[in-house]
Amino acid sequence: MANTTQTADKSYVLSDKTRQFLSGPPKRLLIGGNWVEPASGETFRAVNPATEETLAYVAQAGASDVDAAVAAARRVFDSGAWSRANPHARSRTLVRIAELIEADAAHLAELIVLDNGKTLREARKEVQNVVDSYLYYAGWPTKIYGETNPSSDDVFNYTLVEPAGVCVAIVPWNAPLLGGSMEAGPALACGNSFILKPGEQASLASVRLGELMLEAGLPPGVFTLLTGEGSVTGAALAEHPDVDTVAFTGSTEVGKRVLAASVGSLKRVHLELGGKSPVLVLGDADLDLAIRDSAKGIFALQGQVCCATSRAFVHRSVYDEFVAGMVEAADAVRLGQPLDEETTMGPLITGVQRDRVCGYIEAGKREGAVARAGGDTAKNGPGYFVPPTIFADAHNGMTISQEEIFGPVLTVIPFDDLEDAVGQGNGTIYGLAAAVYTQDISRANALVKRLRAGTVWVNNTLTLDMIAPFGGTKQSGFGRKRGKQSIEHYTSLKTVFVRF
Ligand code: NAD
Fold first, then answer.
1. pTM of the model
2. Of 110, 183, 239, 306, which is the active-site residue?
3. Would you put residue 301 in left (φ > 0), alpha (ψ -120 to 50) or beta?
4. Share of the chain above pLDDT 70, in %
5. CA of 110 to the centre of ligand 1 (A)
């Protein structure tokens, strides 16, 4: 049984900026360039998952706020202030956004840790990724162009690549700043009016992002922030007739609802959904590397990662050694207060999520898997902590192998026959990512083709880059984000014929 260390609750001194941010009045909505209270006056609590304390109160946007926000976003879009702005000017504004975020990095990282529970190291890395993302998309406005086509001799035929219009992103809480920024960057680069609906479990970094967007000089209404519950704010946005596109990141279940809601006005919808990604460890793999990466693949952000590698299929010849290595990795985790620099794993996001993950751990034990590390479902509050758990003696039919747990729980399954392992690896409703560990590059390339996943890693795990497309197959969604694929989502193609 693993003996994960619990780090002590050392007092961490928050920066003045963060204390000031949290001590103010309830956070408001950003509509038409102004911070406004929601029409209903309703707010909800932002909770620190490591202490269960209230951090701040945040506005709950209702249907009438959504109407006002979409109308303001449409007005500025039609005005051309941003949608037809000089591309060089758009680039400069995106660079300015990146610079402001970079200058505010320490404060933003604190907000992310407090609101989400990831470690300081992870939060700092997230902010850096956000900066890189805006800088990457700052390069795009001057490179979005159509083409001329060899149509008949009496016409001149060309295409224009235009902004899509009023674009919504509904995102979860697991990357509180990156989730929305990954959409905002390309949406703004293309000249759209952009509306962000962050996950209600961690919206504070998005509030700060809204402040920085105004400071960067975006025309009022180009960036809108609507905080609130998904079933209220998210649902109203998904079905709004004057919204042109929705980029949804979240669970498969809610993704289906968003798609259904979009049908009324036939919005363009992009779905980035859940996963149950396999890692295949072949008998000839560099085992130390496979273990190190598999620990990262399931323990990063407490396993609350869409592409977490949560099922390991390991060749029987190295199975025991792999399990022992994973138990050692779980033992080395320092679970505790995420503002403590020594902590390597913080709490889960909410009590509901903690109970859900613990429910899966109980199901795993009930169905006959053996928890070789963790497995403890006692509530050791305050804080929604769950120790990293490694299940051995598992098979792919178990609940813990089929359903997305979204917690630090790995299922390790032995295999003898590689064909069978590929079949089992593909054997869930999901198809987001997969990883392969082998020193035989020919075998790796053959496996890459066989795995039904949007991303396949060979001898690495969780590698993502803003320049590389990311997305799922099967019920992990459709569409790709990042890279030029996001530019395609946020633009519309117009075909023009001019008679000579
Ligand atoms: P969720 O689906 O519950 O919520 C995601 C977002 O949708 C939130 O902003 C939420 O408020 C909103 N929402 C909820 N109900 C809604 C409704 N009826 N209409 C419109 N919007 C609604 O997901 P979650 O629990 O917050 O996040 C975890 C899930 O997100 C996991 O399944 C994870 O795999 C997935 N995820 C996927 C990716 C990816 O890129 N594929 C990335 C991160 C997370």
1. 0.97
2. 306
3. left
4. 98
5. 23
